[in-house]
């Protein structure tokens, strides 16, 4: 078997050596590929022209107009507080769900480990 494999490998290398492409031809093909123009996704060749450098324009920053905030009414303030409370509750529930999920995964991993150990012990006892 080893003899057949060695013979097939030698035959494959011999066929590779009989080809007419030499190492210098491979290098010249690689150089052509490197120096060829770029191709975009659609497959059309394009030659990238250097982009002209434009002079930077001066930007004048203007101050925004002052925003006058009127005091919130009691109903608006309660609505805002309720929204904040709901957001905090939502975050708290997500954290608690994540903790429960993590505990369940740890318990499942322990059960899986115990099962694998029992399987290995059973296999060892059979031998």
Individual helix count: 3
Q: What is the number of beta strands?
A: 2
Shape: flat
Low-confidence sequence ranges? none
Strand order of the main beta sheet, please? 1-2
Task: Describe the main β-sheet briefly.
Answer: 2 strands, antiparallel
Order of helices and strands, N to C?
Answer: HHEEH
| N/C terminus separation | 32 Å
Secondary structure class reads mainly alpha
Radius of gyration: 37 Å
Report the β-strand fraction as a percent range: under 5%
Mean pLDDT value: 77
Helix share bin: 55-70%
Commentary on this structure:
This protein is mainly alpha-helical and 127 residues long. Helices cover 65% and strands 3% of the residues. It is built from three helices and two strands, in the order H-H-E-E-H. A two-stranded antiparallel sheet has the order 1-2. Strand 1 and strand 2 form a beta hairpin. It is flat, with a radius of gyration of 37 Å. 0% of the residues are buried. The mean pLDDT is 77.
Q: What are the salient characteristics of this protein?
A:
3 helices; 3% strand; two-stranded antiparallel sheet; 65% helix
Task: Chart the SSEs and their pairings.
Layout: H1 2-17, H2 23-35, E1 38-39, E2 45-46, H3 74-126
Antiparallel strand pairs: 1-2
Short description:
This protein is mainly alpha-helical and 127 residues long. It is 65% helix and 3% strand. The two termini are 32 Å apart.
